[in-house]
């Protein structure tokens, strides 16, 4: 009887107020993706620590365009350097990388078709890196800092202003989801599950409203479920 009561209590706590916006995977721990947690959640303890604020520092040293020198007499050499840089994956880091060289070459010969094709190629590769960093499940703070650095590079490349703005919004949304996940994990560690008022469950749900497949938030919900089951089981055993 106590186990049945505990299960009913858990279902009410998890589903209360969630409506149809909470993905089915959240209510079903079995369907939670089995991926390594980026930051393992520590066991729950007595609520003593304040939750982390909803901010994420994604600062790296601001990227500045390295100055590459290309002259008419060194044009052929510059072409070879660009090809080698593309093969090596050196896209923007120093003056011998593809982006600085290509921008210098474009300034010298704006209508060169090979330069334009290579600029488009580099743009696509950096855009793909940017998207992959937004979706990276591990070391997310560093990944978002690196994504912002790619965005600084893309601002100098042939990217449509509307597309660039959408990428900036995507980065900001990823930063907010990370901040909510981290605050939810802090609340979970301090025992603030969200039974009475704001707590970990609300933070994880907020993430899942934006990104239903967010692995970190799904793992957080599963951890809240486990904590609520323990509490309900203890209450049932003690007859409370």
- What oligomeric assembly is this protein in? single chain
Query: Strand count, sense and closure of the main sheet?
Result: none
Cα gyration radius (Å):
25 Å
- Let me know the number of strands: 0
In terms of structural class, how would the helical and strand content be classed?
Answer: mainly alpha
How do the SSEs run, as a string of H and E?
HHHHHHHHH
Number of helices: 9
What do you see in this structure?
With 240 residues, the chain is mainly α. The chain is built from 9 helices and no strands.
Short structural description:
By secondary structure, the chain is mainly α. The protein has helices at 2-15, 24-27, 75-88, 98-108, 113-134, 140-154, 161-189, 200-210, 215-238. The protein has nine helices and no strands.
Which descriptors would you attach to this protein?
single chain; 240 residues; mainly alpha; 9 helices; 60% helix; rod-shaped; disordered N terminus
Itemize the secondary structure elements and their pairings.
Layout: H1 2-15, H2 24-27, H3 75-88, H4 98-108, H5 113-134, H6 140-154, H7 161-189, H8 200-210, H9 215-238
Helix pairs in contact: 1-9, 3-4, 4-5, 5-6, 6-7, 7-8, 7-9, 8-9
């Amino acid at each position: 009887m106590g186990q049945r009561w505990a299960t009913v209590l858990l279902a009410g706590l998890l589903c209360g107020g969630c409506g149809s916006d909470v993905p089915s995977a959240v209510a079903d721990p079995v369907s939670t993706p089995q991926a390594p947690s980026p930051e393992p959640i520590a066991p729950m303890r007595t609520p003593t620590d304040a939750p982390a604020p909803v901010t994420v520092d994604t600062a790296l040293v601001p990227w500045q365009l390295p100055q590459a020198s290309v002259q008419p007499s060194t044009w052929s050499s510059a072409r070879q350097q660009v090809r080698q840089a593309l093969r090596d994956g050196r896209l923007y880091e120093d003056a011998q990388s593809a982006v600085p060289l290509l921008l210098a070459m474009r300034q010298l010969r704006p209508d060169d078709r090979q330069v334009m094709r290579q600029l488009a190629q580099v743009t696509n590769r950096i855009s793909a890196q940017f998207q992959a960093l937004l979706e990276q499940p591990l070391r997310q703070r560093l990944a978002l800092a690196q994504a912002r650095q790619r965005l600084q590079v893309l601002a100098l490349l042939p990217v449509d202003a509307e597309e660039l703005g959408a990428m900036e919004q995507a980065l900001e949304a990823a930063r907010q989801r990370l901040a909510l996940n981290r605050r939810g994990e802090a609340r979970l560690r301090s025992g603030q599950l969200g039974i009475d008022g704001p707590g970990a469950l609300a933070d994880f749900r907020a993430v899942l409203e934006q990104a239903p497949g967010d692995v970190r938030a799904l793992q957080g919900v599963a951890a809240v479920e486990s904590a609520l089951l323990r509490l309900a089981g203890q209450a049932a055993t003690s007859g409370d």
